[in-house]
Task: inverse folding
């Protein structure tokens, strides 16, 4: 009888990659400030006082400060109406000192979240939540902003040498800022993409076809290790209370080739992409200002 050693997945270190990414972001922020006097600024909007959201926003603001990005926080009461929230976000969209806007999801149920997201100017949508950004992702363009979690996952795949082209990618979940744009980014990189969701029949058999599996449903240990194709790349994008992912990590560890841990996988990369895109938004504004200055100088010289 032969003894088969259980294969053990290599963990994808999101904490380390996020640190490297944040270092480069901080360096660009420093350079932008030195060369143009512009300090990148991220506005964070939080409606209500959900403890998990309060923690996430605090984490984003801490990392901003460390990267030399100013953060301006707008806490709004839980009873804020859609109209009030839209007006507050429009004001940030119109404020030239703000380069990026993050509206923390979820907002209270009485608010039309889509209307609130659409009040974010596309040029400031560093969280990648607007319809404009979604379209840019779907067309594979690089002049928009990607949704932060899917964008962070693409960077993890790149860092570990995973080329999505021609691979079977299965995305479990179809939320507007996670599952759905995730599939778009994988499609733009030539993966063969399948979405699974609450109405999917025989989820296990679809999951078993995945060379790249992204779990983004928000249900603790929803994906069973036994369903995972041996050697697959497994990305656990679930955030559930208590730092438990959407994947049965022990089971997946025995079958996957590469696996993101929770914590320390996708989460830190989400924040790294948010801040990277905030500096990018500020760089784009500064570049436009510089080219306008050159043009007006040239016009004055004529
Ligand atoms: N408009 C919007 N954009 C978002 O990107 C967004 C959002 N709303 N709402 C909530 C989710 C959640 N999210 C996380 C970010 C980082 C970690 C993270 O860094 N987690 C650490 C663990 C942190 C801890 O120890 O608690 C880790 O995984 O290692 C987790 C979750 C962004 N989200």
Result:
């Amino acid at each position: 009888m032969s003894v088969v050693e259980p294969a053990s997945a290599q963990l994808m270190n999101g904490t380390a990659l996020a640190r490297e990414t944040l270092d480069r972001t901080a360096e660009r922020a420093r350079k932008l400030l030195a060369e143009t006097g512009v300090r990148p600024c991220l506005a964070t909007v939080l409606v209500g006082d959900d403890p998990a959201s309060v923690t996430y926003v605090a984490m984003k603001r801490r990392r901003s400060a460390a990267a030399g990005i100013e953060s301006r926080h707008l806490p709004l009461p839980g009873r804020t109406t859609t109209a009030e929230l839209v007006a507050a976000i429009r004001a940030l969209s119109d404020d030239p000192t703000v380069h990026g806007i993050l509206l923390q999801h979820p907002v209270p149920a009485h608010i039309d979240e889509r209307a609130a997201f659409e009040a974010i100017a596309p040029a400031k949508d560093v969280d990648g939540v607007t319809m404009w950004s979604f379209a840019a992702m779907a067309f594979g363009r690089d002049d928009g902003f990607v949704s932060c979690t899917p964008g962070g996952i693409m960077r993890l795949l790149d860092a570990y040498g995973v080329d999505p082209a021609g691979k079977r990618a299965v995305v479990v979940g179809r939320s507007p800022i996670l599952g759905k744009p995730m599939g778009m980014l994988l499609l733009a990189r030539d993966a063969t993409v399948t979405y699974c969701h609450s109405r999917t029949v025989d989820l296990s058999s679809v999951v078993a076809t995945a060379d790249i599996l992204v779990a983004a449903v928000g249900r603790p240990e929803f994906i069973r290790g036994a369903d995972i194709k041996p050697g697959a790349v497994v990305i656990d994008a679930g955030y559930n209370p208590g730092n438990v992912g959407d994947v049965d990590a022990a089971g997946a560890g025995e079958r996957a080739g590469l696996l993101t841990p929770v914590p320390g996988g996708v989460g830190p990369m989400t924040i790294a992409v948010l801040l990277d895109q905030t500096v990018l938004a500020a760089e784009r504004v500064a570049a436009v200002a510089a080219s306008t200055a050159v043009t007006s100088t040239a016009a004055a010289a004529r």
